[in-house]
Structure to design on (570 residues):
């Protein structure tokens, strides 16, 4: 009898693998596998024109942060590269903070509506969430560019005499990223606040807690997994952003994503581009690891 | 009672910030849509209502080609990713945990975690090698890439649906001497259908929206609607781009509404 159930279990496992196999093959061919090639390319020399020369070197990894002096070959910090990394990290952190500051009250507002209204507000957040990123970037571009909505309105009201120059600055990229990634912050926050038991707030008020103390000592600690999830969901795509900095930042205000592309285009340094891509992946992996560690203690239902 | 609960939940300034957030989210999109109906050439100066930019976009052969290509790629990617995701969902739910299952989850969700630009350059390198070796330059690369990154989006609603399903019905079918295939075909699949439809819709929208991976994978002359628009943004902008955006936006809203209605029935 035990033998029969064991045989069944083995058959089940075999069936499961047969069912997941097509998806895995597609994912390995069309997503994960090629990333291994990038890892290999990051350890090769650049080709004469494009591509790579198959000689092992760690030069690409070194040149992420360092550059060799043309004359004596000594290593020094590469300021151009550090500037791009710093801008990417800074803008991504600021984007996360801004979306959190705006997203938390928004999610709270939605979660505390009566059930019928809640679905409608949630749907209103979901539409921008699923709307093409390019369209949203383009929409915000129309608002902040020199002859855009913001400047024409302010000038029409006589508040300013000449257009404020926002477009093609770091500020433009920041505004754009906060705009496009806000729904990514609101949705997980909503999920966390939705499960929050409002009686706890009532209890805290009964114990003479001020509103501020209720927020900081009761609400925030309990919805923390949602805050962490939202922050990760905003930080990760911000760090790898490509479209928004390209459209709103112009050529000068590059972020890591644009810098990677440059190495495969005009830069003609595929190994450096590959090393930068791997570096980005490593940073993202750390952020995700942090996320898993902070949330696995709380809600843990399935794999 | 309801009033009291609402008062407890009120935090000063929160409703104001939320209201502002909704205005800020929708104002740019609304402006974009409004100016797509502008009679003038400007995307900032209103000169009366007209459909000329929709007509212009409709008559533009580059836009026509890009639209057809977008729809073909999105349809194929949605079809392929939904079929394999359905199988994968059946192979990962309602079963005892098996060795390698965590690895399967990680692989399936990988496109949600890895920055798109990394996958984009990886595919560019990989496909460049294949293009050189085989000489094939067709749409296959785009379809493969899109099918892969659509898998998690198709998978999640299907898996959610499966987890909420009652095993009793299938057990009953088996008791009535239905074989495995009959049970699947006559019981599991019909019950699963709303999840599959939802997954396919999400996959379709995700594929239709993709910019970065398409931009890096496409061969010359293989613009989709988003990459065509990205190209246009380097030039003088006319409301034609607004018209294309608004049409795409309308399509997204229609699909999303359908998705929500499908999901609501479950409850």
């Amino acid at each position: 009898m035990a033998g029969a159930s064991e045989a069944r279990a083995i058959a089940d496992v075999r069936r499961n693998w047969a069912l997941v196999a097509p998806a895995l093959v597609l994912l390995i061919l069309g997503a994960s596998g090629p990333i291994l090639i990038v890892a290999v390319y990051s350890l090769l020399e650049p080709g004469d024109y494009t591509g790579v020369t198959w000689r092992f070197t760690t030069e690409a990894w070194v040149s992420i942060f360092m550059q060799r002096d043309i004359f004596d070959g000594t290593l020094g910090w590469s300021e151009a590269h550090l500037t791009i990394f710093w801008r990417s990290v800074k803008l991504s952190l600021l984007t996360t903070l801004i979306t959190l500051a705006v997203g938390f009250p928004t999610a709270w507002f939605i979660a505390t509506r009566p059930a019928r209204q809640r679905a409608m507000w949630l749907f209103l957040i979901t539409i921008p969430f699923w709307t093409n990123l390019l369209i949203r970037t383009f929409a915000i571009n129309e608002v902040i560019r020199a002859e855009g909505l913001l400047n024409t309105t302010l000038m029409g009201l006589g508040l300013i005499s000449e257009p404020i120059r926002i477009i093609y600055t770091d500020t433009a990229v920041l505004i754009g990223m906060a705009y496009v990634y806000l729904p990514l912050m609101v949705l997980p926050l909503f999920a966390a606040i939705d499960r929050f038991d409002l009686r706890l707030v009532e209890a805290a008020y009964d114990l003479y807690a001020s509103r501020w103390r209720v927020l900081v000592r009761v609400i925030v600690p309990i919805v923390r997994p949602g805050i962490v999830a939202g922050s990760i969901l905003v930080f990760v795509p911000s760090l790898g952003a490509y479209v928004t900095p390209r459209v709103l930042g112009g050529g000068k205000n590059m972020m890591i994503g644009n810098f990677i592309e440059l190495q495969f285009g005009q830069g003609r340094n595929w190994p450096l581009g590959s090393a930068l891509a791997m570096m980005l992946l490593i940073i993202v992996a750390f952020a995700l690891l942090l996320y898993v560690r902070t949330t696995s203690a709380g809600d843990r239902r399935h794999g | 009672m309801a009033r009291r609960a609402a008062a407890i939940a009120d935090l000063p300034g929160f409703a104001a910030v939320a209201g502002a957030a909704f205005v800020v989210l929708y104002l740019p999109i609304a402006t974009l849509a409004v100016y797509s109906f502008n009679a003038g050439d400007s995307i900032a100066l209103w000169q009366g209502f007209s459909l000329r930019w929709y007509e212009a976009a409709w008559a533009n052969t580059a836009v026509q080609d890009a639209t057809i290509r977008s729809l073909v790629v999105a349809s194929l990617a949605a079809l392929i990713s939904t079929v394999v995701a359905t199988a994968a969902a059946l192979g990962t739910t309602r079963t005892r945990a098996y060795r390698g299952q965590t690895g399967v989850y990680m692989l399936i969700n990988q496109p949600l975690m890895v920055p798109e630009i990394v996958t984009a350059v990886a595919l560019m390198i990989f496909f460049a090698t294949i293009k050189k070796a085989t000489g094939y330059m067709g749409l296959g690369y785009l379809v493969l890439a899109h099918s892969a990154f659509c898998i998690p989006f198709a998978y999640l609603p299907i898996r959610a649906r499966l987890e909420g399903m009652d095993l009793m019905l299938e057990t009953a079918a088996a008791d009535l001497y239905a074989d495995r295939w009959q049970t699947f075909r006559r019981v599991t699949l019909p019950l699963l259908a709303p999840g599959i439809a939802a997954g396919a819709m999400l996959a379709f929208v995700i594929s239709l929206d993709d910019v970065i991976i398409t931009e890096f994978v496409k061969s010359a002359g293989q613009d989709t609607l988003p990459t065509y628009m990205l190209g246009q943004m380097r030039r003088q902008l006319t409301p034609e781009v607004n018209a294309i955006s608004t049409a795409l936006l309308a399509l997204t809203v229609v699909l999303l509404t359908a998705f929500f209605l499908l999901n609501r029935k479950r409850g």
Summary: Residues 2-41 of chain A form the longest helix (40 residues).
